[in-house]
Amino acid sequence: MEKRALIIGATGIVGGNLAQHLVARGDWNVTGLSRGRTATDSGVDSVTADLTSADSVTRALHGRQFTHVFFTAWSRQATERENIEVNGAMVRHVLDALGPSGALQHAALVTGLKHYLGPFEAYAQGSVPLTPFREEQGRQPVDNFYYEQEDRLFEAARRYGFNWSVHRPHTIIGFALGNAMNMGTTLAVYATLCKETGQPFVFPGSEAQWNGLTDMTDARLLARHLEWASASPNARNEDFNVVNGDVFRWKWMWTQVAQYFGIEPAPFDGRMRPLENRMHEAGKQWSGIAERHRLKEPAIERLASWWHTDADLGRPMEVLTDMSKSRKAGFLDYQSTSDAFFALFDKLRHERIIPS
């Protein structure tokens, strides 16, 4: 039977890389559902809908049948209660539109490590599980829209008879423009600003992140993990952490990033210096850099997410993930995190997003 994939959020950092991966495989028919603000890649059919509206989703998907659906998007709201209401409804609307046809075989949901850490407004409060995080540690006793999305997924799977998987990456490295959570591109923009303006390349985060062990997730590896789980009997109706497979300390990685851009890393004195507090002139500076180097994107807000990078690098504790469950189930892929950063930086240069 032909594999027909619907990717919710096909122009984002996760969905875009997944779409490219499935198209390249050659045996998938791929459709992307989004708000229509960014064009999908070649080989991907495009459907536009407002995911927060059941009527809009139903109209957009009417008469279409898919064997697989991948949820790779979310809508950021002012409070966690609003996140729960809006993002849970988005999952419900799609599955209620697709489920009755009987064609849907598998639904995959991408969430993240806030499953263990708690949401932004209750971030790392209370009893955070012992690292490395393991799937059996379960949920935190706080409101979290990830849990609502999972519950809507589980409920629909029981009602309509399809299989599911849940994927929990750490901070994702990958190519995407206009993405709200994109540390790799944010650091590339920050390093470029430092190089062009002479300001010091200062680590913005906490001493715990500077000295502690951590890991990350390459969007290309996550794409392979999503496809693997859609077909493997060992992954059926299971939740998985998904990271690259190596660990590092930022005190080492910061130097690697600096060396790539040909700049000196500033010494770290233990004080946090969040990017969002220091980038007030960055938009004007970037516009000038883009003009001088003839870059494609002069709007820095389409590239850098200062708040998200600050949140990740400012964590007051070690954040590390165990991949044993995936390994035992048969997913053995590995990705060097430094190579993931360098591959992204190379692509940003090739696409004229940052200077060569």
TrEMBL record:
Residues covered by the PRISE-like Rossmann-fold domain: 65-355
Family matches, as Gene3D superfamilies: NAD(P)-binding Rossmann-like Domain (3.40.50.720)
Highest taxon of the lineage: Bacteria
Pfam families linked: PRISE (PF22917)
Leader sequence residues: none
CDD domains xrefs: 5beta-POR_like_SDR_a
Protein name according to UniProt: NAD(P)H-binding protein
